[in-house]
C-alpha cells in the first residue's frame, strides 16, 4: 500500500492513467495556452505543468530515475546526477527532458561542450523546450556570443512570450548582437 501511495505522490500523470499520447496532447494544449497567457503570473503555472509532464514523460522506472537525478542536482551532486540521467537515456533515448537535465548537470560540472551537445539533442527531440532555449541563451551570454544569445532568446519569446523580463532581455540582446536600439 505504501508503494501505491508513493507512486500517487511522485507520478501524478501515471497514477491517474494518463497515456503518453494524452500527455503529448496536454503538452500541446498547454504550450498554446502559454503563448496566449495574458501575463507572466498566468504563464508560470503553465510552465510548471509543462515541465512536469516532460519530466514524467517516460515509464514509471524512467520517471523514478528522473526524480532521483533531479534530487541529485538539487543536492549539487552533479556526477551522480549525470550518471542517473545517463541511465535514463539508456532506458529511453527519446525522452528530451533526460538530455535537458543531463545538460544542466554537465554545465554545472563545468562541461559546457557536453552540456551544449545535450541541449542540442533536447531540441532535436522537443524543439519547443523553452527552458533549454533559455539555458542556451545564458551560455551564449557568458561567452559574449551576442548573436547566439539573441537567436536563442528569440525562440524563448516565440514559445513563452510572457517570460518575466523577457522583452527587456530580448531588446538588450538585440542591441548587443546587431547594435540597434528597439
Can you tell me about this structure?
There is one protein chain. With about 180 residues, this protein is mainly α. The chain has 11 helices and no strands. The chain has helices spanning about 1-10, 10-15, 20-35, 40-55, 60-75, 80-90, 95-110, 110-125, 130-140, 145-160, 165-180. The longest helix is centred in the N-terminal third of the chain and has 17 residues, at about 20-35. It is globular, with a radius of gyration of 17 Å. The model is unreliable at about 1-15 (pLDDT under 50).
Termini separation comes to 59 Å
The residue fraction in helices comes out at: over 70%
Query: What is the general shape?
Result: globular
Give average pLDDT, whole number.
90
Low-confidence stretches: 1-16
Largest sheet: none
Number of helices: 11
Total DSSP E strands: 0
H-E string: HHHHHHHHHHH
DSSP strand content: under 5%
From the alpha carbons, calculate the radius of gyration and give it in angstroms.
17 Å
Structural class: mainly alpha
Jot down its keywords.
182 residues, globular, single chain, mainly alpha, disordered N terminus, 0% strand, 11 helices
Summary, kept brief:
It is built from 11 helices and no strands. The protein is mostly helical.
Topology (SSEs and partners):
Blueprint: H1 2-10, H2 12-15, H3 20-36, H4 40-55, H5 60-74, H6 78-91, H7 96-108, H8 112-125, H9 130-142, H10 146-159, H11 166-178
Amino acid at each position: 500500500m505504501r508503494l501505491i501511495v508513493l507512486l500517487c505522490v511522485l507520478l501524478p500523470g501515471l497514477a491517474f492513467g494518463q497515456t503518453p499520447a494524452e500527455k503529448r496532447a496536454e503538452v500541446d494544449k498547454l504550450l498554446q495556452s502559454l503563448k496566449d497567457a495574458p501575463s507572466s503570473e498566468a504563464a508560470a503555472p503553465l510552465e510548471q505543468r509543462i515541465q512536469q509532464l516532460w519530466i514524467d514523460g517516460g515509464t514509471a522506472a524512467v520517471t523514478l530515475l528522473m526524480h532521483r537525478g533531479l534530487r541529485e542536482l538539487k543536492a549539487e551532486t552533479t556526477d551522480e546526477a549525470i550518471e542517473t540521467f545517463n541511465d535514463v537515456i539508456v532506458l529511453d533515448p527519446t525522452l528530451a527532458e533526460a538530455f535537458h537535465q543531463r545538460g544542466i548537470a554537465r554545465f554545472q560540472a563545468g562541461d559546457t561542450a557536453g552540456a551544449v551537445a545535450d541541449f542540442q539533442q533536447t531540441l532535436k527531440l522537443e524543439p519547443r523546450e523553452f527552458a533549454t532555449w533559455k539555458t542556451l541563451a545564458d551560455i551564449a551570454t557568458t561567452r559574449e556570443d551576442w548573436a547566439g544569445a539573441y537567436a536563442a532568446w528569440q525562440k524563448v519569446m516565440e514559445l513563452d512570450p510572457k517570460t518575466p523580463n523577457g522583452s527587456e532581455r530580448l531588446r538588450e540582446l538585440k542591441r548587443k548582437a546587431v547594435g540597434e536600439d528597439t
